[in-house]
Structures are given as structure tokens and as C-alpha cells.
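Q: My labmate handed me this sequence with no annotations at all. I'd like to see what the chain might look like in three dimensions before we decide whether it's worth expressing. Could you predict it?
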Amino acid sequence: MATIDGLPPLRDVIRNHDLVAKKQLGQNFLLDLNLTSKIARQAGDLTACDVLEIGPGPGGLTRGLLAEGARRVLAIEKDPRCLPALAEIAAVYPGKLTVLGGDALQIDPTAHLTAPIRVIANLPYNVGTELLVRWLTPDQWPPFWESLTLMFQREVAERIVAKPRTDHYGRLALLAQWRCDAQIVMSLPPEAFTPAPKVHSAVVHLTRLAQPRFAADGAVLARVTAMAFNQRRKMLRSSLKGMGPGIEDKLRAANIEPTCRAEEIGLEQFCALARLLA
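A: Here is what I predict for the chain of 278 residues:
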């Protein structure tokens, strides 16, 4: 699908710029432009939105976003080797693509974006979960973004959408589902990437809610869930004893049996407990 924008096929771009993926940067490049355009479409109509992309690499998803009509794309890329390839894309889409070189964990993108904003990215494996948690736990809600459409390892994606009493259920599911609707919208095999990772991948689409599903102090909820799931095989009366005296009474007041384990407790009960502890 090299003809979506007149630019060379991605394999040629990688060869021309000597862009061998670096494991230490968590790089796995998507080369199929049909596939990157399909990922872009999972975020809905982009024509009236700015898009934030993290880790564009040689620009496969970037090209998909622009071809699907994104109003403007802000791409943050840590690897300076990729910047010339991204500059070639920017030249084909004048005024549509801004590229910032640097670490996404250290850059505030909001000064470069105009609402409404959607985040769409094939996240580097080594920073994906940390970025997601940051986006889910801002000081103010609603956040700067309307939706997140993100590629993760399949196991991480399943953790985001997991329900109680399942193997993947944990703190990440609670953080995501407290403030968002979350669903897996695509699955990708290892051979879709260069180099092929050892795991399958999936795209998760998260749409922010105007307000959290249940009232709770975010900091307290984060602390409660972290303590509960750090010792997920223990009864809650043991794993949460560090929350202060009378924890068993507070658990019962939140309609939680003190002998339950974290994986058995739903979001509404955790929020009720966080309110009591606050």
C-alpha cells in the first residue's frame, strides 16, 4: 500500500535510513500500511481532531493517521535516527505533522495540541504501561484527551479490560475502567511486526467518561488497589492492614468480606472502601 501518500514503502524507508529496530528502545515496527490505516480508523473520525502519537519510528502509523484525515499529528520520537524519515512525511503533508525529538515521559505535549485530542500509538513496549497509567491518573479530570487507541502486548491489553475473578484482573483494570470505557478492538500476530516479537499484540480503545463511574479519591483508590494486588493471594484483612486500624470494619462497611482476596472485588466495592478510608 505504498500509494496512499506517494511515499516509498516502509521497508525501503527502513533500508534507506538504516533503521534497524533497537530492543533497548522497545521498537517493533509495523510495515503494512493497510494495517496502520485500520488502526487509525479504530479511533473514529479524525478530521476534526489533533492526534498525539508516541514512538512513530519510521512513520507507518503516522502515515495511516494522516491518510485517514487527521487534522494534525504531533509525533514524539526518542530515536534521532527516525527523524529524517519523519521529516519526509511532514514534507508531503505541509502543516499537518509536527515531530518532537525526545522522551515522551519527559515532554508535556499539551502546549502543542488543540482540543479535541486523541492519542493513537503503537507504544514502545518498555514505556507503554507507564504512559497509560499517567494518562489515566491526571490531577484534573476530564484529561486533555478524548480517547486512547493504543497497541500493547496482548497480555497487557487483557489486563486493561479484565473483569473480577479472572486471571488478568488487577490494578490496571480498575484504573482504566474507573474513568473509561475500554475494549480490545484489534489483535495482531507477531509476524505483523519487524522484528517479530515473541508475543501477540492487541489494540485497546479507551474512551474517557465525563466523571468516574463511582465517587472516590483517586490517590486513596490507587493506594488501596496497589496494596491489595501487591499481595493478591492474601485475604484483604491482611493485605490492607497497613491502611490503618479497623480495616475489617471498614471492609464490611463497604460490603466486602475481610476474608476475600483482591481479585474477587469489583470496582464499585473498591471505590466504596476508598471513600471510607478517605
